[in-house]
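Researcher: We're teaching a course module on how sequence relates to structure. For the next exercise, students receive a sequence and then see the predicted structure as tokens, so they can try to spot secondary structure elements on their own. Here is the exercise chain.
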Amino acid sequence: MAMLHREDVRERLVVACTGAVAVVLASWIAVATGCASTGPHDGRPIAVKVLRFSVITVGRPAGDAEIRIEPDGRRLGRFTFNDRGRGPDLRSEVVLDGGALRRLRITGHDYLGTKVDDRLDEAAGTLRWQSTSERGAAPVGSGWYVPLHDGVDPDAIDGIDGAAVLARALLRAPAHRIKLLPSGEAWIDDMVTRDIAIAGTRRRLRRVAIAGLGFTPGLIWLDEQDEAFAAVSTWTSIIRAGAEPAIPALLADDQAWARARAARLAAALAHHPPGGKLAITHARVYDSEHRAVTPDATVVIDGDRIAAVGGAATPIPAGAQVIDARGRTLLPGLWDMHGHVVGVAGVVQLASGVTTVRDLGNAPAELDARVARFEAGTEIGPRVLRAGLIDGPGPFTAPVGVVASSVEEATAAVARYADAGYVQIKMYSSLAPALVPVIAAAAHSRGLRVSGHVPKGMNAAQAVESGYDELQHANYLFLQFLAGPDDDTRTPLRFTRVAERAADLDLAGPEVQAFLELLNVHHTVLDPTLAVFDNTFTADPGDLDPSLAPYASRLPAQTLRLTRSGGLPATADKRARYRSSYGALLRMVKQAWDRQIPIVAGTDAWAGLALSHELELYVQAGIPPAEVLSLATIGAARVMGRDRELGSIAVGKRADVVLVDGDPTRDISTVRNTDVVVCRGVVYQPAELFAAAGMRGR
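Model: And here is the predicted structure for the students to work with:
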């Protein structure tokens, strides 16, 4: 049920998943199943029914849930989940009347420890709800209330129960469609029945795809009584205890459904110019090499190559599709240098003008298959450069990638990635420091770049001196000075320590300046992912995630609500301190830029949607907009050794361009106004792509 995964969105919220997303994992997983009580109805007592679930993360137990269905119909739930030392601990009470939700209590704390207090009550014909980020009311019967924290957002692994309750309501509803409270509408996009072998017994399960809540329909498996049975993914699965061996079969079925849906979207939304010839006329063309704009220019594309770039008199091939770009700016396709391509992320990335993504950590088999489909045109997505993740064993090991604890395992992991065509190695937090130079040397010998988190027991300077070509995340620039030898930087300390103390660091002092000089001497590239920290450090519950705020009126109903969940938990005084520390992150990035330390634009957040905000933050830090556009195009291509093919609008280069309404060299925010996107010579209409991802037009 995830779309926008990323490894640190999962830590910040994500999942979404990853969310996830995700990109990126949502901040908690709620537990009430809301199922109708069962048992004899001939006057005999109705026994308590208990449903138990396991939470499995990439094959490893990570938590559990228990739902007690009391004789009076109440559902009492408990859920705990642990992801590398973080995770929610929730209790719930749910009361249904005739299948409709009438009372709800969900209390505890979310993924990052923020208090959860989600409640709904009915009185005098009115439903009233409130949480730490919202409150509202509506007449009974005006819609189906969707709990904020109850597993109904398909873009995040945030439970199973609310989705099952909603699925049963949709099964009963006319045309399988229901109006939602606080807003929106949900419907069944698809459903099918499967016979699945579980512990030697064949079970008849129903897979229901619920649309309207998030970026992509969410899949929920129901049992023979239409009770919650499972929600599975390659990252985290929630399934009835004892049925864990069925995860591969359920996942294969889900993936086949997703592939078929993706193929239908690709066939409908990928527009091929006649004869492969396209002309974009009267455009302001941005020259990423010289940070300048050429007015009233014409660009001719033939197949997957740029055939001509010239003035208004440039000849247009006979029969070519012509796009009049008057009043708009043509940019090279944008690069997101810190993505995690899952679900419909590729659709949203292209809709946002992102034509190249560097995937910095994913399940290799799933990623490889998805990239192959992108290249074959059977799924919509950008060009992808793959980085292979290597971590060490332990309680904080990344759930994706390869685990190495010896020199032999480490060098074998590098060889495996290199042989599969990966271009980079990303090291992670639990890796033994002694293996860092071993992996770096092996990667460099195969022509692969090296980057990552800074493993526990090292600091950023030591990582660079051991072979890192690049550092991910601006917080590690501060942990260089703020973390001690006994601090475990695999835990949320890597966020909280920076939030609490970065404002006090003397950025003009000799220690910081010496560190920046070290980065300069080693030609170290920085991937700051500022947009992640903007929300994590600055947002209170109720505040929109700054990356998604410009899209608020267009977001799916449940996704919009979850963007208000806030960042790190904080009192008012502490939040002010966190915001000051966030300002220090911006100033550090500007100092690096002033020293000509290369910066690449990566998001590690909401796929596609967060990149425009990342670029806005560089401008806010003091980097001119035209320079920001350059680092997000030709600059990224140079870092990855792809500048002969990509990164600028020039004859012979690949036909990846994006037409935006406005002039982002003057107002970087207009990069968000995508009108046409061309990738591999194929034309996409962003409005169509956004609609396919559950978003309304701008």
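Model: If you want an answer key for the exercise: The first helix runs from residue 7 to 12. The radius of gyration is 25 Å.
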